[in-house]
Amino acid sequence: MEIIPLGDSALIVRVRDQCEDAPEETLDEVLRTLQQLRNAAIPGVIEVAPAYTTVALFFDPVAVAKARETPGDVFDWLAEKIRSAIASGSAFHRRRSAAAAPRLIEIPVCYDAEFGLDLDRVGEHTKLSAGEVVDLHSTAEYRVACIGFVPGFPFLTGLPKTLATPRRATPRKEIPPGSVGIGGAQTGIYPLRSPGGWNLIGQTQLKLFDPTKNPPALLCAGDRVRFRAITREVFEASKQGR
Amino acid sequence: MIITRAGFLTSVQDLGRTGYRQFGVSSGGALDSFALRVANLLVGNDENAAGLEITLGGLRLRFDEEQIVAWCGGEVDVHLGSMALPAGHAALLPAGKELKFSQPQTGCRCWLAVSGGIDVPLVLGSRSTDLRAQFGGFEGRTLRDGDELVLGKFRRPPAFAKATVDKQTAATKSISSWTAPHDWVSPAKRNPILRFVRGCDLDHFNASTLQRFTSETFAVSLDSDRMGVRFDSPELKRQGNVDLTSEAVAPGTIQIPPSGKPILLLGDCQTIGGYPKIAHVITVDLGIAAQLRAGDQVRFSEVSLADGHRLLVEREQQLELFRIGLSLHTS
């Protein structure tokens, strides 16, 4: 584990160097570290947020300087608190049985050609039929590694390797919210109307981001996710139901 | 508050959102949060009250009732009728009289505080407008001509309003003579030096690139916004030219994309990114960064992390003295 300053008001706790070799294990370790840092309630800490291999910790240096019992550097003091929080958290974790199982969220997706604008492109690249692409995509299980890029956007791990397709050379200027796409070896869902270069394969009616709700995002890091293929009729019905 | 002319880009901002980065929500808020805090203190508000962030001027507004206003930021001509209102002075604005912001001569943005603050709903704990995700602030958008904004209830006694008026000279009757330090209220510079602490990903750059970063002058691109300041030149090479596994970025982070043109992130920046981070502008200089506009020339100078913290703590101590001074002026 490494603790690296991210400017003067944030730092990064690097839990692992990379996540490709053991994505599940890395994710669980990042989430465990996140929880330990939250539980530690270190004075001056504003918030913590996970990414693939890291947990970022944002702090108010002025509040930390005030809270410090012993003179010394703000960063060193925080790093020491973080190390001890993780060390005692790990001891606690070993005594406990396995962490609570992550929740499973099902996302209904209509893979009709109208929404799956790039199904043919993905098919061509992967040498699969559109039906096979949909089957593979909707039977795999994914996990949310982190949320970012735009509010509520889930970076999902677990895309079957055969479905990996390079991003479009020219990104689309506008992608409707709820669009499901494949970008390289990743899959994700666009929560907001935004530009984007991923290959679109379908659309969901679920709202991925709603600032009037708390939490505002449908998904959070660690969640298990499945896509369920639905017909156009069911898709339209769920639209009216909203 | 009635917006007669919304100007180029005006939005409601407070000190930003915290606690929602894990859901991809940026901190946002006034890009120079210190300037908004000072403006709020000058009018007797809580430091976190919502005000207006005015980008490239052009704003005109008036009130139905007498209000106390103050602004901080770029070099802008602000007029109260025919009277000039300098940065960092509190003014008593009569009902119906128009407050006008010219285009800045230097800098890019300024922040207006109004007694009581702007009363828009709290969304995810903040009144700031998230322009990218279109929520918060006033209907999740920039202001338009004709918008009417509601003000919060002003908690200070009427004595505060009276005390904002300078008793010494009749000519400046509605503008306070007391003010805040010049650096706080007018931080804009055309060719600033921004101080930074070293980046997380220095191993992605060779020695000559790092040397160029501190020795050359960088030109601000037109393509800059609340997410970040982009630079046209010079381009900085990345070793191996690979991106990283995405991890957190923060306002102040300077990242180098494949094009080699540096991007200095500001308050509305995304929460995570995969471009190598060469440096981070220190928090006390973010107000200067928020003033950068196309054509400005910037240089970067390294300081230690401990110095970054010390400068921030010192500024906070000075602000505390300023608060005490203000309470003496207005009680």
Which properties best describe this structure?
heterodimer; A: about 240 residues; alpha+beta; Gyrase A, domain 2; Cyclophilin; 2 domains; four-stranded antiparallel sheet; four-stranded mixed sheet; 13 strands; about 30% helix; elongated; B: alpha+beta
Walk me through this protein's architecture.
The complex is a heterodimer of chains A (242) and B (331). With 242 residues, chain A is an alpha+beta fold. Chain A folds into two domains: 2-99, Gyrase A, domain 2; 104-240, Cyclophilin-like (Cyclophilin). Helices cover 31% and strands 27% of the residues of chain A. In chain A, the strands form four sheets. Chain A has a four-stranded antiparallel sheet with strand order 1-2-4-3. A four-stranded mixed sheet of chain A has the order 5-13-6-7. In chain A, strand 9 and strand 10 (186-189) form a beta hairpin. Chain A is elongated and about 65 Å long. Chain B has helices spanning 33-43, 158-163, 182-185, 207-215, 286-289, 305-329, and strands spanning 2-5, 9-13, 51-55, 60-62, 67-75, 78-80, 83-84, 91-93, 99-101, 106-114, 193-198, 218-220, 228-233, 247-248, 253-255, 263-265, 272-273, 277-281, 297-302. Chain B is built from six helices and 19 strands. In chain B, a hairpin with a 7-residue loop joins strand 12 (218-220) and strand 13. Residues 167-172 of chain B have low confidence and may be disordered. Chain B folds into two domains: 2-188, no CATH class; 193-311, Cyclophilin-like (Cyclophilin). Chain B has 331 residues and is an alpha+beta fold. A seven-stranded mixed beta barrel of chain B has the order 11-18-15-16-13-12-19. Chain B is globular and about 65 Å long.
User: Main beta sheet of chain A: strand number and arrangement?
Assistant: 4 strands, antiparallel
Question: Oligomer, anyone?
Answer: heterodimer
Unreliably modeled segments of chain B: 167-172
> Could you name the CATH homologous superfamily of the largest domain in chain A?
Cyclophilin-like
- Taken together, the total number of domains of chain B comes to 2
From N to C, what is the helix and strand string of chain A?
EEHEEHHEHHEEEEEEEEH
Number of helices of chain B: 6
Strand content of chain B: 15-25%
Distance between the termini of chain A: 45 Å
Order of strands across the main sheet of chain A: 1-2-4-3
How confident is the prediction overall: mean pLDDT of chain B?
Answer: 92
- The Cα radius of gyration of chain B reads 20 Å
